[in-house]
Amino acid sequence: MKKRIISLFLALLLAAAFASGAFAVQGDHYPVTIEVYNNARELVPYTFDKAPERTLVYGRNNVEILLALGLEDNILMVADCSSVLPEYEAAFQKLDFIKNHQEVGYFVKEYALSLEPDMVIGWYSLFNMADRMGDVDFWHERHIGTYTTTNSVLRDNESLENEYKDIRNLAAIYDREDKAEEIISEIEAAVAQGRAAAEGKEPQRVLILEKWEGEYDIYSAHSAAGDIAAQMGAVPLGEVGWKDEQIVAANPEAIYAVHVSSVSGEEAIALYTENPALQSVDAVKNGRIYPVVYSLAYAPGVRTRDTVKLFLKTLYGIE
Known about the structure:
Blueprint: H1 2-20, E1 32-37, E2 43-48, E3 55-58, H2 60-68, E4 75-79, H3 89-92, H4 109-114, E5 119-122, H5 124-128, H6 136-140, E6 145-148, H7 150-153, H8 160-173, H9 177-198, E7 205-212, E8 215-218, H10 224-231, E9 235-236, H11 244-250, E10 254-259, H12 265-273, H13 282-285, E11 289-293, H14 294-297, H15 304-316
Parallel strand pairs: 3-4, 3-5, 5-6, 7-9, 7-10, 10-11
Antiparallel strand pairs: 1-2, 7-8
Helix pairs in contact: 8-9, 9-15
């Protein structure tokens, strides 16, 4: 009888412990294996036995994804990110920035190693450039995890789905899947709203581009911004190396003027409205030129929701 009472008491204690999450941290989720890109653009598996606690993060998109997932305490240092969305600003200001320690605005191998990280997140260029971090194998051999932004690897095959993939993969690494699905569901609902608004109508022909000397950098249907527009019922135009004459011939109904943060939206628009060669283009004549900050067009991460809202408003008048 006494043994039965003790056994019952222990069982109740265990049940309470599981209910409170005392045994749920690693047993229920880890190990987790994620496929990450190496410098040959091949997927290689890496297994995480627990959530990384000392993460080096390169790039605004990656910083914002981690902050959106509530992981500011897991970030050791940040590079190439000077600002974030307002809702993450308070958490962002508590982080340590590489600019506080050196003039170079990115991580290099020797310095990164001295910080003793257990995780490095960045763009393909961070790992691929010889004077930076080196291939991911170098880090994996030292039991340091990595993750490379998918659309920074697949520059000729970017997509909205790849933005979802990054959010989901990072969430899996840190055991935050529920929050990731919450973020993605909001974006998916807005994309579906655009698709529904386009149904039964002639697809709008749009040009998403960034002005360079003598030509334009085109965000085609194979870019993140282009794929988002396409999934919302528009037809993204353009190919690499277009100049004024190609824009005139294509005659887009709307132009999305991608620009960096140091250029204002008004300045970005003026590149087209004040260009004599483009005055016959419908988008110019009808005042349908919309500025798009670079962070909404390339590897937007959680800002994908703002990219979608921009297209909803400018394509279909939906606020």
